[in-house]
Write a structure and sequence with these properties.
The complex is a heterotrimer. Chain A has helices at about 10-15, 35-50, 75, 90-100, 120-125, 130-135, 165, 180-190, 240-255, 275-285, 300-310, 330-340, 340-350, and strands at about 30-35, 55, 80-85, 105-110, 145-150, 175, 195-200, 210, 225-230, 235, 260-265, 265-270, 285-295, 320-325. By secondary structure, chain A is an alpha/beta fold. The longest helix of chain A is centred in the last third of the chain and has 16 residues, at about 240-255. Chain A is globular. The termini of chain A are far apart. By secondary structure, chain B is α+β, with helices and mostly antiparallel strands. Helix content of chain B is about 30%, strand content about 20%. In chain B, strand 17 and strand 18 (about 405-420) form a beta hairpin. Chain B is extended, with a radius of gyration of 29 Å. Chain C has helices spanning about 5-10, 30-40, 55-60, 60-80, 95-120, 195-200, 215-225, 245-255, 345-360, 390-395, 410-415, 445-455, 460-465, 475-485; strands at about 20-25, 45-50, 125, 130-135, 135-140, 165-175, 175-180, 190-195, 205-210, 230-235, 260-265, 270-275, 280-285, 285-290, 290-295, 300, 335, 375, 385, 400-405, 420-430, 435-440. By secondary structure, chain C is an alpha/beta fold. In chain C, about 30% of the residues lie in helices and about 25% in strands. In chain C, helix 2 (about 30-40) packs parallel to helix 9. Chain C contains 14 helices and 22 strands. Chains A and C meet through helix 10 of A and strand 6 of C.
Chain lengths: ~350, ~450, ~500
């Protein structure tokens, strides 16, 4: 279902890449850049390294992307490799899959995660399955960047965090970095990986600054990161909620002297469950959190796996935090109440401490 | 369709029973009269035979499980026949005192099952209003997290007494840790073998006092295991209940007389040589029966408000067996000759020892004799069998110096003590009754007439 | 085009990586028991070894040295057997035969290890393992030049010709340690470390030993018993500093007086030089000369080529892979055991860690490995210890009492004319619990097992004293020492009453 191969060496005919105009500069301040610039840098480096890498989506070329992630790429790499598409997610994904199957390495962008459902057939029935169904005769190395608009007041059809649905499709990798360093390293790894990867980004995090080294580095897929160590309770989270968990951990330490461990899963499929289990064996208490709506969220899968695998190490039930079961409101105040907050995380922790 | 095998009702008042052992396996052929299983009732272990022939298709109730009488415990039929669904028997309800009120909810099987027709047994109505509940108390609800439970198990301690600090009183890891600290667990020294044994037998290490140089050794754990409360057999529980009930309900008082058995003992040896072996118990039994005819109040039962006289004397002879006390009754003893009495007493004693007494043989006495003469006792008092008004305790016959005609002579003296229910028997009557027995026993001419 | 020819397309084997539940790196006394235990627990296991199965212990450590020491001891006994009525004239030593015996033992045991692995279904790879990522191990072929038979690995199986990758759900790193050879030493055949020493085909006439730790001392004694003139130079204030002073004195005294070994302590050996005439070095203002220099200043962890960073692991400052008492490293799926972790570097400790780590890696209830590790030194006389020493107790501020008994007081020892040395118990002052033991003398390395068991089950000195020991045996010495601890040893004169 999944292939072990990665594109380690670039075939000679694609290794020399024509750069039409100087590459866009990304300035670091104290070694830091924004999440969206980290993505841009990743794309630039990979497109420079391997001529097979293409990038396209709605308004990504001339306009530089709805969120300005890819401004300047068209000018440097040319319209053969960076171009706009019609407003048809099915077209974007379908063509990407075809391109991948014939040997190119497309990176596609969907402006909003919500629209991924418009290309459900392409992603799930085609992209995720052709490696397996062709008897490994073909690989489908694409990266589908999807942008979650939660927390921006964009309303029901532009705010969904749907990774849980796609984690349910075997054959597809699903990753969701929470900070600039992971974003760049994981996008590079995703582009080099020969599996189809759904690369989830948070619009709320695009502006977040964080340290990103200048040299070449990769962050492996399928590896969780312990962002904070502690022995009393484990938070497992991904995406923007990771930062809320760190804040909650601070508050719990200050108010109650509780030491929380915060694990940023980073990768949902493949899932590094070993790091999570090891942590729960240590602390005996766990809260799994995500911005996705609570019901049917991937947090349930993880919570269920934890209680199954390390039941005897649990001192309390595994708690889950997610958005309320509803349709994202447009009003900022209502949306804030709808999305999980630091207080929700603290409450969940208190319930089991 | 297969025929249900029913748990029989042993005794009018029996409400539930447990199978001790299935004598046949599923798939075995069963002939009419074959023993299917044995049952522990309140009083003894009974064999249950099959009234039909067929194959034992299914065992629905395993040994050791109390089920209501008349419930289905298995199915008999031809191989391949359909077996109807049997709902698992309800857990044994708190067993009520074996009293006169039958439980209303005894399930009746759908199919007609052969069962012995219940006998009309006159049952005394002295059952008290209150129902004493069974000895076992229900375990309290107890919450503990898996992590805490695993820790308690590793440490070989019992967490059930710890107060939990978690929600709904759940015991969490910290509670166990605090408990261990408070009890000085880390100062305990335990041999590896002792720990292993304690873990297997679920003994709480904190509850053991070390003896071997301050260290808990295997011997200490074995002691703790031996000291654990063990549930008594059903039979013993019922005996305990009944005796307690008797003492609580009937105000007992005791009258003792000394009986000069010298002549009777001599007469008895003579009879024995002549080939007519009677036991002392036979004579005492007869003497009691005769006395009861003269003192009807003693052959009665009371509930404190009414009194019931029994026209017949059903004489109970207490027999002490390993599994508990049984009182087989000689029915209509007042109608039997001494020889018949002797024979019946022997039959019942044998049956009692081999566990073959029927329920009806074990109940129904109107007066009981408890003979400890063979146990070398000076004197003792007995507890009245519930449903009766008095009981005679017979002690050992011993040579004693007594005064006869102002002279000290050595005679064979046997003390007998009557315990009486003061609600119906007063002191004078008791005294006269017990003296009547004495008089008869000391009258050797009487015996010559009866045994002749 | 991605889709190739029909034939290429159908070649799955090249595309599907062989994957295992557990991959063990290193097949020494840590690695192979880990592999066998994991296999016993039902896991699919692979083990990768770049040199010899059996590791240092089997090939260049415990086993070969014991084989040589056996001869040395026997030779010693023969030459001093007149008191017991045996006179041997002209007994001579044939080192080549000794080496032959040693090699035979090693080969047989090596084969045995491989058989055990095979019997347990463990797949064996020969090559250098490195992490491609935490779940992928790359195995590089062993350099042809270093193979004894070109084309065949040191273990005799066909070596990997090309790089291979295998998948691993969990990895157990057991790469062990190697002799630390200071960089300032010249490289010359006359300067060897312990492994090189065991490859010699003849003994030198004279030997300089740099470092008075247990390896240096064992080989020094062995050589001295075989007639070599030995000098030990130790930088610190005494040899075998892990032992209590009284134990050290006993063994050092015997080494110096009976074996004629020269022991220089608190001294450095400088300006070391070697040529085809011999080696020499400056020790204070004395120039020491010998035919061979044995370097035994310690052992360092082996992690070169592992590419730990690909797995997200780093070594400590001193190069060890840190692991907790469950054998776990910082990475949830990687375990490390044995010498490479920097815990007490002994083969049996590696084995104990291995078995527990394998069980933990297979998802069984988390277990810690035992930490009561007996140490055995095959000097002459033998030395063994377990638990705390008096030095340790002092450092910990623990009040203890001790009980000693000399072998000279035992009937058995006198009967066989082996009366050197003593044993010592160390017990808690308040509770009488046995905390440590040391033995120096005949069969010390065997006798220590009783002490280990007693300490582990928290016995007291009183209990040990009450345990009946068969007479006449060497083991009685423990019982007597336990009584001595309470001042009531039967077979020693009473201490002067105050």
């Amino acid at each position: 279902m999944y292939t072990d191969t990665k594109s380690e060496t670039v075939p000679a005919e694609y290794a020399k890449v024509e750069i039409l105009q100087p590459l866009p500069e990304i300035k670091r301040v104290n070694g830091e850049i924004t999440y969206k610039d980290a993505l841009k840098e990743a794309l630039i480096e990979e497109m420079k390294r391997d001529g097979r890498v293409l990038f396209y989506g709605e308004d990504v070329a001339d306009y530089g992307g709805a969120f300005k992630v890819t401004k300047g790429l068209l000018e440097s790499f040319g319209r053969d490799r960076v171009f706009n598409t019609p407003i048809s997610e099915a077209c974007i994904c379908g063509t990407g899959i075809g391109l991948a199957m014939i040997g190119l390495r497309p990176v596609m962008e969907l402006m909003y995660f919500d629209f991924a459902l418009m290309s459900s057939d392409q992603i799930s029935n085609q992209g995720a399955k052709w490696h397996y169904m062709s008897g490994a005769q073909t690989e489908v190395p694409f990266v589908l960047r999807v942008s979650a608009g939660a927390g921006k007041g964009y309303g029901g059809q532009h705010s969904q965090t749907l990774e849980s649905m796609f984690c349910h499709i075997p054959g597809l990798y699903v990753v969701y970095p929470s900070n600039p360093y992971d974003a760049k390293g994981m996008l590079k790894s995703a582009i080099r990986d020969n599996n189809p990867v759904m690369f989830v980004e948070s619009q709320g995090l695009y502006g977040m600054k964080g340290p990103v080294p200048e040299g070449e580095y990769l962050v492996p897929l399928g590896v969780a990161d312990v962002k904070r160590e502690g022995g009393d309770l484990t938070f497992v989270a991904w995406g923007p909620v990771v930062h809320d968990c760190l804040k909650a951990a601070d508050k719990l330490k200050a108010d109650k002297g509780v030491n929380c461990e915060v694990i940023d899963l980073r990768s949902l499929v493949p899932l590094d469950i070993d790091t999570v289990l090891r942590s729960v064996q240590k602390t005996g208490r766990c809260v799994v959190a995500s911005q996705a709506i609570h019901i049917g969220s991937y947090t349930g899968e993880i919570a269920s796996t934890i209680q199954d695998a390390v039941f005897d190490y649990l001192d309390a039930p595994v708690k889950r935090v997610g958005a309320k079961n509803g349709i994202a409101p447009q009003s900022h105040i209502l949306e804030a109440a709808f999305l999980p907050s630091v207080n929700d995380l603290i409450a969940a922790a208190n319930a089991i401490l | 369709m297969a025929t249900p095998i029913i748990m029989p009702k042993f005794g009018q008042m029996t409400e539930e029973s447990a199978i001790v052992e299935w004598r046949k396996k599923e798939g075995d052929k069963v002939a009419k009269g074959d023993i299917l299983f044995t049952v522990e009732t309140d009083k003894s272990v009974m064999e249950v035979e099959s009234f039909e022939e067929g194959t034992l298709l299914k065992i629905a109730v395993p040994p050791g499980v109390n089920v209501p009488v008349q419930s289905t415990v298995g199915f008999l039929g031809n191989p391949g026949e359909a077996i109807p669904q049997v709902t698992a028997p309800a857990a044994a309800a708190k067993s009520a005192v074996v009293g006169p009120l039958p439980s209303a909810g005894v399930p009746v099987p759908a199919a007609e099952a052969p069962s012995p027709a219940p006998r009309e047994v006159t049952r005394p109505t002295t059952a008290p209003a209150s129902v004493t509940s069974a000895a076992t108390s229900a375990p309290s609800v107890f919450r503990i997290s898996p992590r805490a439970r695993a820790l308690a198990k590793r440490m070989v301690i019992d967490p059930s007494s710890i107060k939990g600090s978690g929600p709904s009183g759940r015991i969490v890891e910290n509670d166990i840790v605090a408990h261990l600290k408070a009890r000085g667990y880390d100062k305990l020294r335990i041999t590896p073998a002792a720990k292993e044994l304690a873990a297997k037998q679920s003994i709480d290490l904190l509850g053991i006092t070390p003896s071997d140089g301050g260290r808990i050794a295997v011997a200490d754990v074995e002691r703790a295991i031996a000291e654990r409360p063990k549930t008594m057999s059903k039979m013993r529980q019922v005996i305990a209940q009944r005796l307690q009930q008797s003492v609580v309900t009937s105000p007992h008082f005791y009258v003792t007389v000394e009986v000069d058995m010298t002549d009777l003992v001599r007469f008895r040896s003579q009879l024995k040589e002549q080939g007519a072996p009677y036991t002392i118990t036979d004579f005492i039994a007869e003497a009691v029966v005769l006395a009861l005819k003269e003192f009807p109040d003693v052959n009665s039962t009371t509930d404190g408000r009414t009194v019931r006289w029994h026209s017949r004397v059903h004489l109970g002879l207490a027999v002490s067996l390993e599994q508990g006390l049984v009182v087989p009754a000689i029915r209509d003893a007042d109608q039997l000759s001494l020889a018949e009495l002797n024979q019946r007493a022997k039959e019942l004693a044998d049956k009692a020892r081999s566990g073959k007494l029927t329920p009806d043989e074990m109940t129904g006495s109107t007066f009981t004799i408890s003979n400890m003469g063979m146990l070398d006792v000076e004197d003792f008092t007995a507890i009245i069998n519930p449903g009766e008004s008095a009981i005679l305790a017979v002690s050992s016959t011993r040579k004693k110096p007594v005064v006869r005609d102002d002279k000290v002579v050595v005679r064979q003296i046997m003390k007998i003590t009557l315990s009486s229910d003061h609600r119906i028997i007063d002191g004078a009557m008791a005294a006269r009754f017990v003296n009547a027995i004495r008089a008869k026993l000391e009258d050797v001419e009487l015996w010559k007439r009866l045994a002749g | 085009m991605r889709t190739g020819t029909q034939a290429e397309a159908c070649d799955y084997k090249g595309k599907i990586m062989e994957s295992f539940d557990i991959v063990v790196i290193g097949a020494g006394p840590g690695g192979y028991p880990a592999a066998i235990r994991a296999a016993q627990l039902g896991a699919s296991v692979a083990i990768v070894e770049r040199e010899q199965f059996g590791g240092t212990c089997l090939n260049w450590g415990c086993i070969p040295t014991k084989a040589l020491i056996a001869t040395a001891d026997l030779y010693q006994h023969i030459r001093h057997a007149e008191a017991l009525g045996i006179t041997v004239k002209g007994a001579s030593l044939d080192y080549a035969v000794m080496i032959g015996h040693k090699n035979q033992v090693v080969e047989k045991m090596r084969g045995g290890v491989k058989q055990l692995l095979t019997a347990n279904g463990v797949k064996q790879f020969v090559g250098t393992a490195s992490f491609k990522d935490r779940n992928t191990i790359e195995i590089a072929p062993v350099a042809q030049a270093s193979l004894p038979v070109p084309g065949k690995s040191a273990t005799g199986t066909a070596a990997c010709a090309t790089n291979q990758q295998i998948g691993a759900k969990k990895v157990i790193v057991a790469t062990g340690s190697t002799s630390a050879v200071p960089g300032f030493l010249p490289k010359h055949p006359r300067i060897v470390e312990s492994r090189g020493f065991l490859d010699l085909d003849k003994l030198p006439e004279s030997l300089l030993v740099l470092g008075g730790g247990y390896i240096g001392c064992e080989l020094a004694c062995m050589a001295a018993q075989c007639g070599v003139k030995v000098t030990i130079v130790e930088l610190l204030e005494d040899i075998l500093l892990l032992l209590d002073p009284d134990v050290r004195r006993e063994v050092r005294g015997h080494m110096e007086q009976q074996l004629g070994i020269r022991v220089l302590t608190g001294k450095a050996l400088e300006k070391i030089a070697a040529d085809d005439k011999g080696v020499r070095g400056q020790c204070g203002d004395e120039t020491l000369k010998a035919q061979l220099l044995l370097v035994s200043v310690g052992r360092k962890p082996v992690t070169d080529g592992l590419k730990l960073e690909n797995a997200g692991l780093k070594t400590s400052e001193r190069g060890f892979i840190e692991a907790d008492e469950y054998g776990r490293t910082k990475v949830a799926t990687i375990y490390a055991i044995g010498d490479v972790t920097g815990k007490t570097q002994l083969a049996h400790y590696a084995t104990a860690q291995a078995i527990v780590a394998a069980s933990n890696a297979c998802g069984r209830e988390l277990q810690k490995h035992d930490t009561l590790v007996p140490g055995v030194i095959f000097t002459s006389p033998e030395v063994a210890l377990v638990g705390i020493t008096e030095q340790d107790a002092k450092k910990q501020g623990r009040t203890i009492k001790t009980g000693k008994f000399r072998f000279g007081g035992l009937g058995r020892a006198m009967a066989v004319n082996e009366t050197v040395g003593f044993v010592k118990w160390i017990a808690d002052e308040a509770t009488d619990q046995l905390l440590g033991a040391a033995a120096v003398g005949p069969h010390a390395t065997e006798l220590i097992a009783e002490a280990t068991a007693a300490i582990r089950s928290e016995s007291t000195a009183a209990e040990l004293g009450n345990t009946i020991h068969a007479h006449p045996t060497f083991s009685e010495v423990w019982m007597e020492a336990a009584h001595a601890l309470h001042g009531d040893a039967i077979h020693a004169p009473p201490k002067k009453r105050k």
